[in-house]
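Minimal example, chain plus adenosine monophosphate.
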Amino acid sequence: MNILVINCGSSSLKFQLIDSDTEQVKAKGLCERIGIDGSRLVYTPAGKDKIVTETPMPDHSKAVSLVLDALTDSENGVISGLSEIGAVGHRVVHGGEKFSTSVIIDDEVLKAVEECNDLAPLHNPANLIGIDACTKLMPGVPQTAVFDTAFHQTMPEKAFLYGLPYRYYTDHKVRRYGFHGTSHSFVSRRAAEILNRSCDDFKVIVCHLGNGASVSAVMNGKCVDTSMGLTPLEGLIMGTRSGDLDPAIIEYIANCEKLSLGDVMKVLNKESGVLGLSGGLSSDFRDIGKAYDEGKAEGRRAFDTYSYRVAKYIGAYTAAMNGVDAIVFTAGVGENDPLIRSMICGYLGYLGLSIDENENRKRGEEVQISSPDSKVKVLVVPTNEELAIARETVRLVNGG
Ligand code: AMP
């Protein structure tokens, strides 16, 4: 069955058409600048060069319709008609407490997703627009919602509550939710498979280190803690996000710099992280790595602070699970940056963990980087959220 996987942002739409039998990607692409001047579709059929078409996309419906046209195009299409799309799987960012698993979309689901809009005001409305566009253009084709938050719904209360008046939780849903759940779930399962371990007896810490970054503690197949919170701002230092900080800093900086609350939040989301620590050099770890290699203070400062924070979370999650069998690195930085992996693992000798630097030099592939005598296994596992969404969609459509 062909599954169309869709990830809608406020002005973008990423897609992949995946053959669920072979798990091969038949085509993939991206619509950029939806609703803005200069919109374009980047379409890559498997085995061919990417095709860039600049064309107006006033809304997501137009974007979805252009994607469907590209997929069925007589020259560069990969299917002969829309009837060859068996189902559509949507990435939905926030499922609140309502969704602890993926679901087939119906009117009730749409209403519940809408009720989570206030928790993810930039993302959930865009996801809903994408679903609506597909419903109009492919009536009758089953659609699923796969939530970024769902995998973390197994966290116990002691892990998800903040030390705030309890009624903020009951009245306003203020709690930790966690994100990147599809990736944490996919990678933790894959790690168990690689190590030939049963998920039911396995303690793993997943470090999803991309532009956004989060760590999760997964015990016996269930998430017991994760570093992102009510929003993706909490936890690790990221590309441009600050991660954890003393909340009093917000008022203090607002006063010092004469900024509004909104301005300070923008700084914490867009101008902090390694971008901020490197004095504005870059949010891209390749640039920071280069500065580090050249002995520049900006690079050293950003990488030292970044890796120390990840190592502290690993220590905390080892305590939360009373031990750890494996640590897994994934996402853009986790899969590709041997220096960051080495710096993080350098803090973990007390666990009896050691890495093989020859193996650690490998990039972007599944590899065990711990040395043979390491008590804790360390793996690199490339994440594949689109494939995970396609698998979930097939499971649900088949009544699973
Ligand atoms: P993601 O959000 O998972 O797509 O990760 C994107 C981030 O991965 C980029 O911002 C880069 O900083 C980082 N990245 C990608 N390739 C490399 C690489 N070869 N070395 C270090 N970092 C990389």
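Residues 210-211, 239, 284-286, 289, 331-333, 336-337 surround adenosine monophosphate (CB under 6 Å). The CA atoms of residues 184 and 206 lie 6 Å apart.
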